[in-house]
Amino acid sequence: MYRTFFDCAERKILGLTATPYRLYASLQYLDWEGKQVFRPKDEEKSLEFDQRIASRQIRMENKCILKFLTRMRPRIFHDVIYQVDISTLLQRGYLATLRYFDLSIMTHASLKRNSTGMDFDDDALKAQYDQRNLSTHLINIVRRLQHPKDGRPRKGILVFTRFIEESELLCEYVEGCAIITGSTPKKERERILKEFKAGKIKVVTNVGVLTTGFDYPELDTVVMARPTMSLALYYQIVGRAIRPHPDKESAWIVDLCGNYKRFGRVEDLHLQQYRAEEYIITGCPDNQERQLTNVYF
Q1: Strand order of the sheet with strand 36-37?
Q2: 163-175: pLDDT as tens digits
């Protein structure tokens, strides 16, 4: 759709984005040693390939790949003419200092993927939540944030959950908490956010609503009570607290579901060019620098 529109417009296209990558599903073929193999283009060899699949000499797995924008098909953007790292913006004072707290009670490796391989299976995720008692853990963490050891409560706590149930329980057991979901009426949503920014509501928990388009520079605490395989979503959630404000010494990112272990600090994300028109994003999950885009996982 975009490609057709741009072609008809007959104009040069300039794109601006903080997340120059998108998650795609991909079917991988693996041999009995777990090494990736590829389907031959030759028709006869392709039939032999199918026979090997039928005899289980080759197995198929749903994987996903984080593609940089210049590697997407149909290709719309071919080059990066300017980029600036988050670490540079932090050094220049354009962004708030971030502090990360990994309080995870699960890892991504322990979670089953859905049929596309691009996200986690909802039923399996709910079973993990029940087994590890995520809701109780979330309630305890938010209460601790409301009454920290240094005696200075956080100005605003924004919570992200995967399912409505966790948000509803949080509101039931935490004082001064409000919930926003996709079904929250517009006027009610506006009222909640207005009172949140005014300090009347101390905690707002949401289910897939406030990842973008929510601007509150004074926000100093984000709690991720949901796992994600999407680097873009992780970045967007962290980004809710990265806006600077004179009264904000630092922003806290509290992760409960293994996201920090997978992606690391957003300050460590760097864009690198290794060939003409080919770029990658690297990061430092577990304090080890590695490539995050254009690789299967």
Answers
A1: 36-37, 21-30, 59-68
A2: 999 999 999 999 9
